[in-house]
Amino acid sequence: MIKEKLDDFEKNIEKDILKYKKVSSKKLNKIETIIQKANEKKNISLRVNSQDLEQIKLKADHEGIPYQTLISSVLHKFVTDQLIDQKNIIKSIQLLNKQKLITK
Question: Which of 28, 29, 30, 40 is least crowded, fewest Cβ atoms below 10 Å from its Cβ?
Answer without folding.
Answer: 40
